[in-house]
Amino acid sequence: MAQAERRGPQVLNIGEVLAQLSDDFPSMTASKIRFLEEKGLINPQRTPAGYRQYAESDVERLRFVLALQRDQYLPLKVIKDYLEAIDRGERPENLPPGVTVSPRIVSEELASELQNRVRRLTEEQLRAESGASVPMLESLLSFGLIGHVNGKFDEYALQVARACVQLEGHGLEPRHLRPFQAAAEREFGLVERAVATLTSRKDAASHARAAEEAREISELCLSLHRALVLDRISRMDI
Prior knowledge:
The chain is mainly alpha-helical. The protein has three domains: 2-114, Multidrug-efflux Transporter Regulator, Chain: A, Domain 2 (Orthogonal Bundle), CATH 1.10.1660; 119-179, no CATH class; 195-238. It has helices at 2-7, 14-21, 30-38, 56-72, 76-87, 107-114, 123-130, 134-142, 155-168, 178-194, 196-199, 204-234, and strands at residues 45-46, 52-53. Pfam families: MerR_1.
């Protein structure tokens, strides 16, 4: 009883944190938690002897970070910006679709919010929200521009469908857009090779670093692609 009073009911060690996260994030490890701490995503208290002590708010903060990584594929630096804004009492306006947070990360509130962190759309919902017709959706599927899992589509499929609907208004049909899929595969191959040294390692921290580096490289690839296209457009005699 004396030990419980000294630690307090909300103080957890790293093993207890892993136990709380294991159902939703079964691949989570102690090294991944330490990696997120190294990146400044969490800041657990330390005992005089240097042992980490986690509060329930640290656990929910981890849930938020891991959910955005897993379901929205966001870089850690972007997630950190969200967290810092929330810590300042702000409500970030540019959160990805389907993600909302309270001004302060409170365990019960955030747990409720994270239930809606990812949307899975039926075909009817995808068509309604993107404006795609049945033939358009069939074309996107047949050309491999979108896919589904058990008949459900994710936010990326919605983004692709919306873009393709608008491009159709400029005379570009899905059959014209297949080079984008091929280019995406080639860019992914470049990213995959760039992080191969990290992904070949067995520890979770290396895999976490590989995922983070892959996101950063992909953002640079997209910036390069945009700059090259805009450069060509700037040379048009219009």
